[in-house]
Specification:
Elements lengths: L1 E3 L13 E5 L6 E5 L12 E3 L12 E6 L6 H14 L4 E5 L7 H9 L5 H25 L3 E5 L2 H10 L4 H7 L8 E6 L2 H9 L20 H23 L2 E4 L4 H12 L13 H13 L3 H8 L1
Length: about 300
């Protein structure tokens, strides 16, 4: 169940002591300073049923990619997007931490290093909820294909790696739509670290997990933090049925396997036009078809 208060305003607190409040029946969240709660008596809050993970039923398809930084997942989903569009499908794309709703809050918190693991978790949940409403559920209801570069499993891995309670994080995202297929790009940690660290002058404070006090050295802290994240991903494979992909294979081979896996799920999905290949074959057929003049000449 979720609780909503009948208000339509977004309050902005000056401090970083935030609480997550649901605003609409479509699970849109806002972040307000906890001091504002005194203005809203609990007797006026209302309770509504909420669709939970696995209970949604939309005509569209949702494909997501997961993995540590440097796994190559973003390259693969970009290639998949290009292919699906060339096949005539309507495709929408959403990526982690991209909602304008929390952009300023996140930037401020990172700059001043004010984000605790729990606050970080709530901000990302807010970002995800806003994108779920606008970028995921709406297209799925319309029968389109939605591609997501990172999904709830990123929160499950990173937040728990930051010592946030595992069950609490899962309950926080229970409103999420269950993906049609969730790909997990598995890559040896030394390979992903090499890809990320090559050419980098420095690592960011939260990116390297420096807020956890794992090490005073940013690079060592980053390695230890990534090890924790990988451990959580591995635990989720069976729990959520993640489809494991070998991220060490050549990029074209990874893409071929990805397309093979999703192809059966495309049955029944409406296309707005013929695929590029079908259009090419149709054009060739027209060129090879005898013209009416030629046909009349032969009959004479």
């Amino acid at each position: 169940m979720i609780y909503t208060y009948p208000i339509r305003y977004v309050f902005k607190g000056e401090g970083m002591n935030f609480v997550l409040i649901t605003l609409t029946l479509t699970y849109k969240f806002i972040i307000i300073d906890i001091s504002y709660l005194s203005h809203f008596p609990l007797s006026e809050w209302k309770e509504f049923p909420m669709e939970t993970y696995g209970s949604h039923n939309y005509p569209g398809r949702l494909f997501v990619v997961e993995g540590v930084d440097g796994s190559g997942k973003s390259t693969q989903i970009a290639l998949l997007r290009q292919w699906l569009i060339s096949e005539g499908y309507t495709v929408f794309f959403s990526e982690w931490n991209s909602s304008p709703l929390v952009k300023k809050t996140t930037s401020k918190g990172k700059k001043k290093q004010l984000l605790t693991p729990t606050t970080f978790s709530l901000i990302h949940a807010t970002d995800f909820a806003d994108r779920t409403e606008h970028d995921i559920i709406a297209p799925l209801k319309a029968g389109a294909i939605v591609l997501a570069d990172r999904y709830i499993y990123t929160a499950f891995a990173r937040d728990v790696a930051r010592n946030v309670d595992r069950q609490w994080v899962r309950e926080l995202y229970q409103f999420a739509v269950k993906p049609t297929v969730a790909f997990y790009y598995r890559v040896p940690l030394e390979v992903s670290l090499s890809r990320i660290l090559t050419g980098r002058n420095e690592l960011k404070y939260y990116e390297s997990g420096m807020d956890l006090g794992l090490s005073s050295d940013p690079y060592e802290s980053f390695k230890l933090f990534q090890e924790r994240i990988v451990s959580e991903y591995e635990k989720m494979i069976d729990e959520f049925g993640l489809t494991v992909m070998d991220a060490t294979l050549p990029i074209p081979e990874q893409q071929r396997r990805m397309r093979k896996i999703i192809r059966p799920y495309l049955q029944g999905v409406r296309r707005i036009r013929a695929s590029a290949k079908e259009t090419a074959w149709a054009g060739l057929a027209r060129e090879m078809r005898p013209s009416l003049t030629d046909a009349q000449g032969r009959s004479a």
